[in-house]
Amino acid sequence: MPIYEYRCGQCEKTFETAQSVHARTEDTVCPFCNAQDATKLLSSFASKIVGTRKPGFSEMKAYNMLNERMSKFSKLPPVLGTRTPPPSNLFSSSDPPAGEPKKS
Ligand SMILES: [Zn+2]
Fold it and tell me: Model's pTM, two decimal places?
């Protein structure tokens, strides 16, 4: 339920109230003097909580770890990757693997 901030036109006090989005301003009762003379304000308090919520530290850490892992993965040789097919000349007979032990 969103939090709205009002200023009472009778006692000129500001107050916050959580009410339905369908609630009308003229139905809002001042908690100080019970007058129905409130003016809706743009509540910076509510927007701080609901609107501009920053991701937590653990979320940022997980995001950074994911980025780091992805960057490491992209540096792997293409033959170990699953998405990119190996070059066609990689297994050509004219270029044998270097690690092959030579039999004498
Ligand atoms: Zn009032």
Answer: 0.41
Taking the centre of ligand 1 as the mean of its atom positions, its distance from the CA of residue 49, in whole angstroms, is 25
Task: Give the integer Cα–Cα distance in Å for 21 and 45.
Answer: 17
CA–CA dist 97, 37 (Å, integer): 85
Task: Give ion ligand 1 contacts, CB < 5 A.
Answer: 8, 10-11, 30, 32-33, 35
Q: How far is the CA of 20 from the centre of ligand 1 (A)?
A: 20
For 41-59, what is each residue's pLDDT tens digit?
875 554 454 555 566 777 7
- Mapped onto helix, strand or coil, the DSSP state of residue 41 is strand
Distance 34 CA to ligand 1 centre (A): 6
User: How many other C-beta atoms lie within 10 A of the C-beta of residue 19?
Assistant: 16
Element (H, E) at 72: helix 57-74
